[in-house]
Design goal:
Layout: H1 12-15, H2 18-32, H3 38-55, H4 60-83, E1 91-95, E2 98-101, H5 102-128, H6 131-140, H7 146-175, H8 185-216, H9 235-257
Length: 266
Amino acid sequence: MARFQYLKGNSFFHRMDPTWKFVWNFVVVGTVILNFDLLYTALWFVYAFLLAVFLAQIPIRQYLRSILLFVGIALFIALWKSVYYAEEAQVLFAWGPINVTQEGILEGFASFFRVLVIVSLSVIFTLTTDPGRMVESLIQVAKVPYRIGYTAYAALRFIPIYENEAQVITNAHQIRGVGETGKSLRSKARLYRSLLVPLLVSGIRRAQAASIAMDSRGFGAYAKRTIIHEVKVSRSTMVFVLVHIAIGAVAFYYYIILGHGIQFLG
């Protein structure tokens, strides 16, 4: 199963309107990046994890598999901040030009949890949002032109397709004895380089096929299209999003307007 493929379900997030869900994602991300306090960002990560498991009903194994790709990036940022902290701080360990500071570690791991929160929100949105339903919501709720809505639908639809196709190409290379099986960075780089051309050619072919299909069906010939499924936003969805908007507004006032937030110094 692809890491970012839509999972069918009947959870709260599955029933949630995609446009309002996107607004919720944007608000929570904005709230998380207001402060660099470690406890603040760690609590947001715990909250995002609980939402993913209980309200989105994403299997824990699938959730961990989806965020695993970004854990390494988050750790790199944390370690970089721990070593290269711009301001004078308490040095915990020194080795030549490398100085590990207490403030750098705190701010680094705060950045670590920030990255994981953003990734978790993206996983919740991607795994619980049906691309077709998202397009209908963008057109009817957000009033986006249906040409742009179809573009967004195609982008989301092709992500799991290319991921599966990359795995098929990798398996085909290994069967022929030309694939990379190592776990080192060099082996990974060679693997991705071997996938670049086949995926690029496949993408061009898919784009040409989609273009011919759209032209043959007269896509874009009319300014408006007939609506088959009417999108309705539930009251629980609106309350859920508005509560997070209120939390974000309070956090913005406390950390930015009143100046209680920890400033980014790295």
